[in-house]
Amino acid sequence: WRDMTWQAKADNEGLKRRLWDLEKVLEQAQEDKRDIREEMTWQYQELQKQTAAHSQRLEVKVKSLQEQLANRLQESQTTQETATQALAERDRTIAQLQGKLYAMEKEYEKIPHGSLDLVLAKMAEASQYWEEVGTTITVEHKECLQEFGLNPLEM
Fold first, then answer.
1. pLDDT tens digit string along 81-94?
2. Structural domain count of the chain
3. What is the span of the domain harbouring residue 55?
4. 135: in domain
5. Looking at the keywords, is Cytoplasm present (predicted)?
6. Would 120 be classed as within a structural domain?
7. In this structure, what DSSP letter does residue 153 have?
8. For the residues of 12-50, what is the DSSP string, one character each?
9. Would you list the DSSP string of 53-115?
10. Is 16 inside any structural domain?
11. Does the pLDDT at position 152 exceed 80?
């Protein structure tokens, strides 16, 4: 029995040592697991911070770009309104100038007609005057010829 007791104690000691070694390995594995979990938690939190910061920067950039777009749209609308007003003013000016040109053409058409009428009236006066002068001269010459006894119709 002694040998068996001694053998059982030796096996018991060996098993206790092995159990103690396995407990140490288990504790080390749990410690490693805890360290890995802490590291992963830290990395996750850092990644969340970086993502939040990046998201915030993007939101600021989007807001800035939206403001720029709104400003550009406002400028574009203002420019378009100004261009529309300028075109309308140009069209009004062209219409006024065309109206003036038409009126001037009518006035200039009247000038030659008026001048022609005036020239014709003066020519009619001159013609009448010279006809009267011619008649007077003819009458005087007839009288002169008759004084000398000549017949003016024979000449």
1. 999 999 999 999 99
2. 1
3. 7-110
4. no
5. yes
6. no
7. T
8. HHHHHHHHHHHHHHHHHHHHHHHHHHHHHHHHHHHHHHH
9. HHHHHHHHHHHHHHHHHHHHHHHHHHHHHHHHHHHHHHHHHHHHHHHHHHHHHHHHHHHHHHH
10. yes
11. no
